[in-house]
Amino acid sequence: MDRVYLDNAATTPVRREVLEAMVPYLTGKYGNPSSIHSFGREVRRDVDLARERVAAALGALPEEIVFTAGGSEADNMAIKGAALAAMGKKGHIITSAIEHHAVLESAEGLGRLGFEVTRVGVDADGLVDPEDVRRAIRPDTFLITIMHANNEVGTIQPIEAVAEIAHEAGVLFHTDAVQSVAHIPVDVRAMGVDMLSLSGHKFYAPKGIGALYIRRGLRLVPLVNGGAQERKRRAGTENVAGIVGLGVAIELAMAERDPMAAHERVLRDRLIAGLEQRISHVKLNGHRTRRLPNNVNMSFLYVEGESLLLNLDMNGIAASSGSACTSGSLEPSHVLMAMGMPHEVAHGSVRMTLGRYTTEADVDRVLDVMPGIVGRLREMSPVYEKTTCAIKETCANADVCDVAKS
Hints:
The chain is of the alpha/beta class. The chain has 15 helices and 12 strands. Helices cover 42% and strands 13% of the residues. Helix 10 packs across helix 13 (360-379).
């Protein structure tokens, strides 16, 4: 049985071209970039080239790019570094209720140090209203951090509008663009952001490498001390192989972004339409059109999402219930809850994210398998039985049926 991988928002495989570019730095090119001899200088040139490639992809300057161990570290560096720089002068942060946990927990951690955090809400499509952000700004606000595109439901936020509001108030603006880089246009100048986080393993680079764009002239307090690497912004010997892989991966992604997005969008819409046509009581989560080209997040009412995922996996199909970082949690998605979704509907959600290797046959396989799985699981659900009876007005217990009452 051929396996189908629809969890590209969690991670992607390393591209062959990327792996081939990395291998020399795991064998013969083993110099330390900080060394002044020929071994070190050779490697330093390749690190600088990768930095130029990342900068070019973002519309930034090479000196504005700091390499990190991934998106979570980049988020932590932006938020905590800005907070430490503002400590004693300003103490208020604004974020949204649907951010990645790397952002939310960084802000919460600062709350224990005396900073105050405001979480603005979102609408039923997962969109932040820029005016809500404006109303939340206080005289002591020093940072606003709103993600570019949501990792669970794929909704793309009005980043430019929020950044403009932030700068009108003299507030720094950071965006987590981990899910959007390589899928949709990302230009730090056009967006007006002061800091931007990205992660390589979301676009076919290896795990353990990412970057933070920091606008030139912006001061952050380093989180990692002990060396002068990355212009004294992040100490520690560089992950040269990972950095080289990131540079190659992002250059390839930029060259292929538009046709790849078109490929993903066609498959995405085919999957959404097929599921809506073949299965009753389903709900698309996130904005229908203002969403990432590779994201499908749907709730299948009267079915547990975890049971659905297990059954899909037994049929060779890999999907997820949301962020891979919280897959061990039994709590419903904080993103879906913030969008106003009832617990029972949120628990029935499945995220399917496409990639460069996803085919039409993969999508059709899901469309063939999913209706049967949902049907079998609903047959075991007393809630679904009562609901369908109430809908058909044939249920003897309609008076006590919660759905009928609603």
